[in-house]
Amino acid sequence: MFSISCIDLGSSCTTAIRGDNVDQLIADMQDHGRTYHGYSEEEITSPRMRARMKIAIMHSTRPPEQRTTHTEGWWRPHVEPVVPG
Fold first, then answer.
1. Which domain, by its residues, includes 51?
2. Is residue 37 part of a domain?
3. How far is Cα 9 from Cα 13, in angstroms, rounded to an integer?
4. pTM beyond cutoff 0.85
5. Is residue 85 part of a domain?
6. Does a structural domain hold residue 59?
């Protein structure tokens, strides 16, 4: 079971989203983003947003002492994640 909150994505929203696998979690995150945060279908399903979601999921599964803060470079909004392929 995976779990992530909007806070892990840098938002002040406290909603926690849970899923049995990463794909289900991302689909539920996309639904939440469309419904509660006003993202368009194009924005929420873009390779950039999917990469941001995967990064946040990987980051949230680390033990707390190994996590970086949201102020460090990997998560700043102006830093583009590397999108495979």
1. 2-75
2. yes
3. 9
4. no
5. no
6. yes
pLDDT at 32 over 90: yes
pLDDT in tens, 34-75: 999 999 999 999 998 888 888 888 877 766 666 555 544 444
Is 84 a domain residue?
Answer: no
Average pLDDT, the chain: 78
Amino acid sitting at position 13:
C
Amino acid at 79: V
- Retrieve residue 76's tokens: 């700043």
Rounded Cα distance between 44 and 68, Å, is: 24
| C-alpha 42: how far from chain center | 16
C-alpha 38/C-alpha 40 separation (Å) is 6
Over range 76-85, report the average pLDDT: 49
The neighbouring-strand residues paired with 16 are 5
For the chain, how many structural domains are there in total?
1
Backbone phi, psi, residue 84, to 5° = -60, 145
Residue located via tokens 């983003």: 33
